[in-house]
Amino acid sequence: MTGIDKLKEEMKVNSDKAPKEVREQVIAQSKMILDVLIKKCEEDKSFEDKLLLSHKSFERCFVYLSNKARKMLIKGTQCVAVDDATVFSWIYEYYDLDDKAAVERDEKNKERIEREKAKRKEKAEKQNENEPAANDEEDSGDDVNEDEEEMEEESVNQPGVKEDKAPDPVTTLKPKKSKNTSDQLEGQIDIFQMLM
């Protein structure tokens, strides 16, 4: 297998993972990158050897590019325009980077996290096996609708002022603000996150 063959396979997998809404765009971007990298391999045979390294992948390259682009973001913005020359310099930089130790460490961390998740899931399943009878008999006495717990009282006349008394006709219920710390709007696609 050549470095270009490996890259083609990785790009196809990467494109297949992309959400339908952006898949065509990801395929077009991947083809453009592939064309430039094929030319680079023809000019520099040592670059193709770097593509074949087991710890190098297009997915990790894309993460590297995304992280570099994030560093260019201006506070309060969610996108940045990066010219082709800069993107390709980052790609070459990624393949020149000696990151084998970091990749191995990341893979060990992933394995550890997966084992911990499996242990927590197993523990929760055991607890659920032992608790169903107790849960059916117990009733906390709270007849509060779960949807109402998600709502926050707010006065129409005084926005942002919470009422301590029972709601009156001019009080409305509004959804609580999301606790999402990112600036991303609901329903918005973050192309940097879609491939991670």
Give an account of the 3D structure.
The protein has 196 residues and is mainly α. The chain has eight helices and two strands, in the order ααααααααββ. Strands 1-2 form a two-stranded antiparallel sheet. The two termini are 26 Å apart.
Key descriptive features of the protein:
two-stranded antiparallel sheet; 196 residues; 8 helices
% residues in beta strands: 5-15%
What do the pLDDT scores average to?
Answer: 74
Radius of gyration: 25 Å
What's the shape?
globular
Strand order of the largest sheet: 1-2
Q: How many runs of DSSP E, i.e. beta strands?
A: 2
Structural class: mainly alpha
Major beta-sheet overview = 2 strands, antiparallel
Helix percent reads: 55-70%
**Total count of helical runs of at least 4 residues:** 8
Task: Please write out the topology.
Elements: H1 3-17, H2 20-43, H3 45-51, H4 58-72, H5 84-96, H6 100-130, H7 132-137, H8 146-149, E1 151-155, E2 171-175
Antiparallel strand pairs: 1-2
Helix pairs in contact: 1-2, 1-3, 2-3, 4-5
